[in-house]
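Summary of Year 1 activities. Much of the first year was spent building the evaluation harness for sequence design. The harness presents a backbone, in tokenized form, and records the residue chosen at every position. We chose the following record to illustrate the format because it has been used consistently in internal testing since the harness was completed.
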């Protein structure tokens, strides 16, 4: 997978892909974890996670999805 979006629906962040990659649904809720990361999907014990870092002007420039880095474009 080459890209994804994080959107808010109400106060819940969602991970959205243009097409369903292996192991993921097209849209999945993000569940906050105590360490500041997010669990991907409804299963709180699920193995997939999303973390943000490299924050500039209040916006993260990099996301780590299940251990792989993705960079903000635009």
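For this record, the design step produced the sequence shown next.
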């Amino acid at each position: 997978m080459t890209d994804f979006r994080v959107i808010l629906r109400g106060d819940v962040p969602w991970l959205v892909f243009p097409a369903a990659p292996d192991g993921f649904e097209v849209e999945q809720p993000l569940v906050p974890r105590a360490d500041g990361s997010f669990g991907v999907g409804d299963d709180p014990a699920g193995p997939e996670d999303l973390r943000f870092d490299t924050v500039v002007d209040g916006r993260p420039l990099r996301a780590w999805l299940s251990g792989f880095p993705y960079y903000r474009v635009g």
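The chain has one domain: 5-71. Quantitative recovery figures across the full test set are reported in Table 2.
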